Amino acid sequence: MKIALLGYGRMGKTIEKLAVERGHSVVKKIDQGDTYDFADADVAIDFSVPDAAVDNISMALKSGVPVVSGTTGWLDRYPEMVALCKENNGAFIYASNFSVGVNIFFELNKKLAQMMKALDSYNVSMTEVHHIHKLDAPSGTAITLAEGIIEESSKTDWILGNEESNKITIKAVREAEVPGTHTITYQSDVDEIMIEHKAHSRNGFALGAIIAAEWLKDKKGVHTMKDVLNLS
Ligand SMILES: NC(=O)C1=CN([C@@H]2O[C@H](COP(=O)(O)OP(=O)(O)OC[C@H]3O[C@@H](n4cnc5c(N)ncnc54)[C@H](O)[C@@H]3O)[C@@H](O)[C@H]2O)C=CC1
Ligand SMILES: O=C(O)C1=N[C@H](C(=O)O)C[C@H](O)C1
Fold first, then answer.
1. Distance of alpha carbon 7 from alpha carbon 46, whole angstroms
2. Which residues are listed for NAD(+) binding in this entry (predicted)?
């Protein structure tokens, strides 16, 4: 598979290394200031910055190249990208987290929220810890987890930092070079239940994005990691 990388930072470099190990080749690396040229790429993979994601995804779709995007912090414009994909009869996957483990964790989170729904004595909150270079807070993964809880419970929204009734409090910590840790806590007066996903490196995110690209390259339409991993 011939890959065009949109963004050649920490994730772009990790994807290149793992993709080559899987027998793929990186035919283009498009970083800030570079001209869009997808050469003969089969697929584009975007891990850039919140301000660049929409342009990157749009250019790939308009050039007829299937695009996988893992950039976070731009999701208010996701519906526009869905429409553009349909207009161009293209192929597109976005995921706030491509790691297989986190996608299992997303399902576990929803299952736990369902089970806790009737138990008023527990308050749910979340902490995400990431490296100090991260531009957005809360993380895209934390937002997906909060949306999963909202889907299954009486909570109506999430809030960064302060506690507010009926909202899920998310605490964002920036610390050294932490790749990404997400913890969900249900706290009562007598005990607490915690579930946690801790990434040991960026390899899981990168491998998941490559698996998504392999799956997407001959498809059309807008898809999710649930489709890729066949999670009910
Ligand atoms: N969905 C997932 O599984 C994961 C998502 N991420 C997200 O991916 C993004 C990138 O993360 P990192 O690689 O750690 O960041 P990074 O800061 O190391 O790399 C971003 C790269 O994008 C480049 N860039 C800036 N403007 C650009 C433009 N207009 N076009 C192309 N490239 C441009 C920067 O120069 C830099 O090289 C972040 O939004 C992060 O939250 C990170 C890890 C996993
Ligand atoms: O910026 C990162 O590094 C990460 N970003 C994603 C997010 O915002 O959820 C995924 C992962 O946690 C690493």
1. 6
2. 31, 70-72, 95-98
Task: Give yes or no for residue 141 CB within 6 A of ligand 2.
Answer: yes
- The answer to whether the complex's ipTM is over 0.95 is yes
Residue nearest to atom 38 of ligand 1 (CA): 71
Q: What's the CA gap between 25 and 14, in Å, rounded? A: 13
- Indicate if ligand 2 lies below 6 Å from the C-beta of 99: no
Binding residues for NAD(+): 31, 70-72, 95-98
pLDDT in tens, 50-77: 999 999 999 999 999 999 999 999 999 9
The whole-angstrom separation of Cα 52 and Cα 104 is 29
Cα R_g (the chain), whole angstroms: 18
Residue 113 CA from chain centroid, whole number: 20
The structure's pTM equals 0.97
Q: What is the pLDDT of residues 157-193, one digit of tens each?
A: 999 997 777 899 999 999 999 999 999 999 999 999 9
CATH of domain 2-98+203-229: 3.40.50.720
User: Taking the domain 100-198, which CATH number applies?
Assistant: 3.30.360.10
Q: Give the C-alpha separation, 32 to 38, whole Å.
A: 15
Write down the domain spans for the chain: 2-98+203-229, 100-198
Is the CB of residue 208 less than 8 Å from the CB of residue 197?
Answer: no
Q: What is the pLDDT of residues 70-111, one digit of tens each?
A: 999 999 999 999 999 999 999 999 999 999 999 999 999 999
